[in-house]
Design brief:
Strands 2-8-7-6-5-3-4 form a seven-stranded mixed sheet, with helices on both faces. The chain has two domains: 5-43 and 298-403, Aspartate Aminotransferase, domain 1 (Alpha-Beta Complex); 69-295, Aspartate Aminotransferase, domain 2, CATH 3.40.640. Helix content is 38%, strand content 13%. It is globular, with a radius of gyration of 22 Å. The protein starts with a helix and ends in a 6-residue tail after the last helix. The protein has helices at residues 5-14, 43-57, 64-67, 73-85, 98-112, 127-140, 154-157, 180-189, 209-212, 281-295, 299-320, 346-355, 379-395, 401-404; strands spanning 31-32, 92-95, 118-121, 145-148, 162-168, 193-197, 216-219, 233-237, 325-326, 338-342, 358-359, 361-363, 367-371. It is built from 14 helices and 13 strands. The protein is of the alpha/beta class. Bound molecules: pyridoxal-5'-phosphate (PLP). Pyridoxal-5'-phosphate (PLP) is lined by residues 97-99, 126, 128-129, 168, 172, 197, 199-200, 220, 233.
Length: 410
């Protein structure tokens, strides 16, 4: 293990991704380890959005739906995201939020497996996924139930009763990563379909949905894809299902001919049928800049650096802060791009750390979460964050009423 700050600066000097940081507007003096929650802003974004505002909207007004290609953005950016997740062009589209896209694909999947009633997930899945499944089941009124397995027991819990396996590939709290290939294969062997939530995977770890044989996937635009706050999400439908993919949010822009203004719904032949309404053009422009930052780098280099960053951070924190308990897997095959620790005073510790310019976040009940985004996080940042955390712990700087004050967003 390396020990001085200079050692980490040396790692930065040898880092093949070091130049990518210049693509982002990361404030000087800040160590930003929350790109898994809100990715940093690419430098290209401000100019692009300004252009869409002042030129495309301001001057050209409604003509821009055609002349500036506004209507093509969901598919164009979907095709770019497809390259990040091992999908083909025409299998991914950008629309709505992750929650809404989950609703669409889950409804479509349950319809494709009509005799079975069990949706299998994890109790520890991101709550919105579970909530959407509960709401949809209630709406359908067909007796669907949500069942849970522990992360390492999912494989064995898939049975001939399972209609759909609905999992988040990388757990938002622990950073534990599922084996997409073996779980998908097991589900198919048992006659179940699989939905992968890639919110903490797309742009963070290598993903190959088609190699794994995944049926459906969804994911988030504002985390590792750097699309900006509330950026639209994406949805993947494997080509073999496109013709029979029937989702319930049958808005006009998912219609085969929206501008025929026919009274009767008929789905678009391709992935466009996953769309509901009018695309959010300003947000899409920002998202495209974010996705482009990832396409400018090699995913295997991103993965290699991500593991090196998390390895280094885990080693430093464990050496310096024995009271923090690692909950992220040490095995590389099981780890996404974050490191998380528990401590009963986790919230106050994180607030104290943030006050020193090291930004991670807190997840109830007791988790300190640090996301590592290799495009703009340096090895020196790892060292500085670990040093700040060591000092906060050793000095008990967190033990102040101001750091216990809970904010609305943690
Ligand atoms: C962040 C995240 C979401 C977010 O859903 P929104 O609809 O964008 O609010 C959904 N699922 C998972 C697993 C997430 O991590």
């Amino acid at each position: 293990m390396t020990h001085t700050r200079q050692d980490y600066l040396d790692l930065d000097a040898k880092d093949p991704l070091a130049a990518q940081r210049a693509l982002f507007d990361v404030p000087e003096g800040l160590v930003y380890l929350d790109g898994n929650s809100l990715g940093a802003m690419p430098k290209a974004t401000a100019a692009r959005v300004a252009h869409v505002l002042t030129r495309e909207w301001g001057r050209d007004l409604i003509k821009s739906w055609n002349t500036a290609g506004w209507m093509d953005l969901p598919r164009k950016i979907g095709d770019k995201i497809a390259r990040l997740i091992g999908a083909n062009a025409g299998e991914v589209i950008v629309a709505d939020s992750t929650s809404i896209n989950l609703f669409k694909v889950l409804a479509a999947a349950l319809r494709l497996n009509p005799t079975r009633k069990v949706i299998l997930s994890e109790r520890d899945n991101f709550p919105t996924d579970l909530y959407m499944a509960q709401g949809l089941s209630e709406l359908l009124g067909q007796g669907h139930t949500l069942e849970f397995a522990e992360a390492d027991a999912v494989h064995n819990a898939i049975s001939q009763e399972t209609a759909v396996v609905m999992l988040t590939h990388v757990n938002y709290r622990t950073g534990r990563m599922h084996d997409m290939l073996s779980i998908t294969a097991k589900a198919h062997a048992m006659g179940a379909l699989v939905i992968w939530d890639l919110a903490h995977s797309a742009g963070a770890v290598p993903v190959d949905v088609n190699d794994a044989g995944a049926d459906f996937a969804i994911g988030c635009g504002y985390k590792y894809l750097n699309g900006g706050p509330g950026a639209p999400a994406f949805v993947f439908v494997a080509e073999r299902y496109l013709a029979e993919f029937v989702q319930p949010l049958t808005g006009w822009l998912g219609h085969a001919q929206p501008f025929a203004f026919d009274w009767k719904y008929a789905p678009a032949p391709g992935i466009e049928r996953a769309i509901c309404g009018t695309p959010p053009v300003l947000s899409l422009a920002a998202l495209e800049c974010g996705v482009d930052t990832l396409l400018s780098a090699d995913m295997s280099a991103i993965r290699q650096k991500s593991l090196a960053l998390t390895d280094a951070f885990i080693a430093l924190v464990e050496a310096n802060c024995p009271e923090l308990n690692l909950i992220t897997p040490r095995e590389h095959d099981l780890r996404g791009s974050q490191a998380a620790f528990t401590h009963p005073e986790g919230y106050a510790i994180m607030q104290a750390l943030i006050s020193r310019g090291v930004i991670g976040d807190f997840r109830a009940p007791d988790i300190l979460r640090f996301g590592f985004t290799p495009l703009y996080t340096r090895f020196a940042d790892v060292y500085d964050a670990a040093e700040a955390l060591r000092d906060v712990m050793q000095s008990r700087a967190w033990d102040k009423p101001q750091f216990r004050q809970k904010n609305k967003v943690t």
